[in-house]
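Fold these two proteins, one after the other.
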Amino acid sequence: MIKNIIFDWGGVLIHLDKQRCTEAFAKYGVVVSDELTNPYGQRADLMDFEKGLMTVEEFHETVRRIYAPTLSDEQIDEAWSALLLGIPEYKLDKLLELKGRYRLFLLSNTNAVHWRVGRKCFDYKGHRAEDYFDQIFLSHEIHELKPTAEAFLKVAEMAGIVPEETLFVDDLQVSCDAAEALGFRTYCPPANTDWFANYEL
């Protein structure tokens, strides 16, 4: 019996388009690689930022050193966050409906810049991000990244949940496989789709 649902953020709730990120940097005359624009496969030093091991200031300096020596902090944040398209209202309505029946959690590999911008996408009908979930777990705050077992085990401990009673929803099969190996039930919808259309809750 499912009592809890853990949602991924990028691709499951908020829609992403990395091409918009590439185009935003190009607007400033900067060519960036897939290692920066791909939220699922970044270079190792940028992954440190996702894990909270690099400050925002260090991130800006790293991007300037590798790609964009002339860009300001604000320009970097604006271009890098262009991949965040927003959360469709029907998904926010569904979260509000599900919260009446399950304990809901958010578990996301994300960084301080993207969360500062993207959390505003939860502003709907007077609600904020915290209103949809019992707890929010972000990689840069818990210092763990999916799909490591440590990330899932830390969330289970901090949330006080049993994996066998918990559904994990993520658009990456590797993350679902890792969670399933620990006893979680999983559902892996394609990115940027209506995740609950083909799953009965």
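Now the second one:
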Amino acid sequence: MEFTFVYDGPLKTNRSASIEDKQAIRRVFHSQLRLLWQQRPLKDLAGWLQDDVPKHRYSAIRKIGPFAFAPLVTEALCLTAELNIFFLRPEPPGALITQGGDIDNRLKTLFDALRMPKRPSEIPSNDGPLKDEMPFFCLLEDDNLITKIAVKTDRLLKGSMGDNNVHLLIGVTTKRIVGTAANLGLG
């Protein structure tokens, strides 16, 4: 399965990004994934978005704190993700370590935002799901399920942007590790 995310906003280094920053980015991807789940083949798998299913049926729901997360790429589905990232930033090409932060640490922030939180402490303490966040869609159960990354950087030619602002096009390809009836059409 292939699709593309778009992100336009701040992307801090992992050292300076707060859990609030990561949750804000996660919400951008949630809204795009919510639309993706309304289309085939995911539309046909709406039963996975129920929490109270018999043990022999698959549920994508993972409860963390007040949220019910629904990751698309999970270990149980034997899926992995490959990412092709076009990373535009307001800096000259080749300036990998700059005022906005080094690329690899900014990518770590992105990867954290693409996955569901692992524990309640990774969710802002005063945060809860909004009306359209039941469930809260995310790409990954764990960022260890990313098996390939390609990054191309270039200068973002857009006026009056902060040092941390970026424009990202993230091509996602899901891959099956093992073909099962459950992941047919997803990789």
